[in-house]
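Pilot study result, target chain (325 residues):
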Amino acid sequence: MCCLEARYCVGTGIFKGLNVFEILFLGTSASAPSARRGLSSQIVKHDEYRFMIDCGEGTQRQILQSGIGFKQLTRILLTHGHLDHILGLGGLMSTFLRWEAIEELEIFGGKNALERVRTLINDVVLRGTTPPMSLHFREIGPGVLFEGDDFTVSAFPVTHRGPDCLGYMFEEKARRPFLPEKATELGVPFGPERRQLVEGGSITLADGRTISPEDVLGPMLRGTKLMVVGDTGRTDDLLQYAQGADALVIESTYLDEEAGMARQFSHMTAKGAADLAVKAGVKQLILTHISRRYREKDVLAEAQSIFQNVVVARDFDSFTVRRNE
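Predicted structure:
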């Protein structure tokens, strides 16, 4: 069982020395909410970091119901500026004005999305009042937007209706895994000595022997890779980014029987998403942005006819994503 009452744990292998990403789905419906699905929003967690991706109408209630709380939600990443992905920011800011307190809020997105969000927050919610926190609108394009000690978050271009649409990649930095069996064989005690070796420093044992990182570290391995795509009408331009992802989160608004309508509105079918997963060699496919016109089992069946390791996310599902070695 993954944390936050997850239904699934993505990846089953042990990759010593690496942490994981967790993704919590707050809203999984397409365009309009349904009785069981809210509008688009997810939270990606890595250690103490939290990143909200999109904030559809009603997201603040989903945050409360999930139990994750508001305190660490200081970075919001927008895939594009359509209303079903941004309207929840108005209510969220209103709540910050009255009840919740955070010191800083950064909202990242393309130019078009940020223009709509600025109007929503500054002209509708704040209307000349001072925001209750240090508020920053970060206009971004493709490339790295955040770098931590052991992972990065980067944006990549996505084809949808309108300019500046983005997807997001969460990727741990490549590193050499610690080999505890080798360390024990060499007589390295448990404690700070092992940490020093992991961090790249040599140690001297009580008997005078010097142990270097080369003695206890394995070959370089890439880190966990989580790719999150918002609304998209194409996948051929996503293939280069999706290669080898441990988990791919992508919309599935239509079934293939309505592929023409999907192309008309620049959305994806379950078949199209599964085709991308096969071509890119991803480990796990997670479908979201589900239309009320379809049954979940039909969306799942269409995708599984092409790519077996697929799930359809539901509101409040949480998935742990780790490198599968």
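One observation from the pilot: The radius of gyration is 21 Å. A full batch analysis is planned for the follow-on phase.
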